[in-house]
Structures are given as C-alpha cells and as structure tokens.
Structure prediction request, 436 residues.
Amino acid sequence: MAGAPVIRAEHLGKRYRLGARGRQSSTAGDAIAAAASRLLGRLRIGRSTEVSDDILWALDDLTFEVQPGETIGIIGRNGAGKSTLLKILSRIMEPTTGFAEITGRVGSLLEVGTGFHADLTGRENTYLNGAILGMKRAEIERKFDEIVAFAEVDRFIDTPVKFYSSGMYMRLAFAVAAHLETEILVIDEVLAVGDIQFQRKCLGKMNDIARHGRTVLFISHNMEAIQRLCSRGMLLDRGRLMASGSIGEVVTKYRATERRLVDIGRFNARGRSGTGWARIRDLRLVDIAGRPVPGRPAEEDLTFVVDLELHNASMVGASLRGLILELVIHSDQGQPLVSLMSIDDEGVELPSAAGCRITATLSGPTFLPGRYRLNAFLGIPYREHVDEVPDALEFEVLSPVHPWRPYELHSSRQIVCRKASWTCTVDAPFAGASVP
Prediction:
C-alpha cells in the first residue's frame, strides 16, 4: 500500500489575463478585495466559470499525487503548462484555484541561475541558495567541495557570477540544486543549454538522486532522457492532465498525439531551445529534383536541406563561421540511429556569412520502411547549444520501388539497411581439389 504522498495537488489552476499589467491596489479596500479574491480562488473546486478572449488558463483543474522516491517525467508541447506547474510546486507563484501540498524541502532549477545574484561570487551564491532552501550553514559546508568539484568552477568560485560563461553558470546552478539536501528535486529543461558531456553528467547525478530515495520531477523534450531517467510520466496539454502512468505508456500517447499534430515532411520548430543568436530557419527532405517530399523509398538516398541564419541582427560582426550542424535520425520510438555532422570527413565549414544552405545526403539504401524523426543541433559541441530542435522533421522511408533483396525488409533484421561490398575467395588447400 502506498504511503503518504510528498506532493498532493487538487483542482490546481493558474489563470493569466493576456495583455494585462499588474497594478498595485490604490486603496485599502482594493487590497482587501484582492486578498479575498485569491482566498476564494484557492477554496474553489475546479475551474472558474470566467471565460474571455483575454483569459488564459495555463493550468486547468489538475489533480495528482507523487509518492516519495518517484521520478516523474512531465512532458507535453510548448505552452502545455509544464513550467507553470513546476513554478507553483516550487512556491515561486501561487495558483488561482485549488492547492498543492508539499512535504519536504524542494530544490529547483527552472531557469539558468535561478536564485543567483549576479554581483555575488560563486561561493556566496552557493551559501545564499542553501539559505533560501532552509539549509543550515553546516549542511552547506559539508557539501560545498562536492558542489564545486561537480561544477568544475574551482578556479572561479570566488569570482562574481556575472563574469561566468553560460556554461559555467549552468554547471554551478545545477550542482547547487542537486547536491544540497532537499527531499524533492525539480528540474525544468535547462539542461538543453549545456554541452552533451555535461548533460550526461547531470542525468547520471539525477539517477543517483533517485536511487537514494529522493523525489525528482523532470521536464524535457528529450524523450530518450525522459525514458532513461523516469519511471512514471505525466502528459499535459493546454493546462490539462491528459495522461498519467508508466513512462513508456505516457510517451507512446504523447507521440501519438504529436503525430496527429505534426505535418509529416514539414519543419517543426516547436520544441527548440538554446542561446538562439543563430537558428535553423527551415529543414526539409528532398527528392532527386530538389523538391520537398514527405518520404523516400528505402533504396534511395536521403537528402536533407537545411537553411541557417543569424537570428540576432544586433550582433556586430557575427557570422555562422565556427558553428557545427548535427542531424540525428531517430526511430519512431525515439531510439537514435545515425548521427550526421557537418565537420565529419568530406563535410563542410560554415561560412563567414549571415545565412547559408547546407545539403546532407545519406546514401541509400537507408532504413526499413516506416516513420522516422530528425533532431537538429546547431552550435559547438561541449561548449554552446545555439539552436537545438528535437523532432524537427518527421519523414517516411517507403517500401522499395526496385527491391534489391529476395527477402522482405523486416524489423527482425534490425532497422538500418545497407549494401556491403562483398568478396569471396577459395582457401588455398582447396584451390586444386577435385570434385567427386
């Protein structure tokens, strides 16, 4: 039988008025009325009946529980309400309706450097964050060396964080949130700005946290990371809880929902993240005539065309030079299959220009017939993620027009189809052997 939950939310709702600016109460009566309205909102069961074009319900009547030691992956499209939910659970904002009861201290990392003061040093910010979380100084001191070692900022720990790079900021912020002794760790998709090596390090740390019985809530568009880390999932859509259960079942439902929304063969930038000063403007699969197509036969080449551009025109002297483009093809279930990188042998160097078009061709035959997804990355591996777009393109590999194999292309023979160069020689002792 399950014990007492560490998080219990009932009829949780958060309403925003679009275009409205907050104003201070002009009179004591206004202040009392506003306070009474907030109290009634919390006591109200379910959603307000107020409906208007300028009203947005970021969260709408959420009820759920989280048990101690669970690792929960919270997934959904951009604007689904994921970050709003974590902000409420972290006590950064108040709900409009319903309530959330939380047992234990919460360590949260919702934005890069949340809770950091730019003029304070890394050391001072570590102690400040610990104090905000309710830690005693002795607790922070016990973990301090471990935090600095994980963040790899020992040379700069006494430097004001305003002089840190985004990567250094990220490493220290995560290290503080993950190492201080909180019962619940809440992580938004901030790891996307870190390099691949650091992401793996963070996922390993979160795995370690979960194994020691602490509760983890993790938002990510990376379904591979979500499935590797989490045991249970919650799917949000337009503020509502659409599914809750085992992570495999929830991810499957999310992908089915996305499939209905995604126009196959068209660039999908909804989940993009990164520093954003340059970006992928368009990405498409083309046929031999260069025309965009939703799919290609299994025996034909896969040719992807990618348009890149500077997104921040105010950056004087900036260009695409030095950036790297990587395309990773995934199966429909999210398993990475092939990585194509612009700096591989016979690759290309991005120009000193504000825009360019790159063509990448994977020679056929390629994959078994079916649907595939393409993740796109623009940046400098291990240093900066400038633009990362998961599920940027969904495309199909079609059945061969001219089959080259006498057997059906079947998943029992794996997913990738290739033609090898074959030779056959006769062993020397048998070269002159007579045939009986």
User: Anything to note?
Assistant: The longest strand covers residues 384-398. Helices lie at 28-43, 82-89, 122-132, 137-151, 166-179, 196-211, 223-229, 247-261.
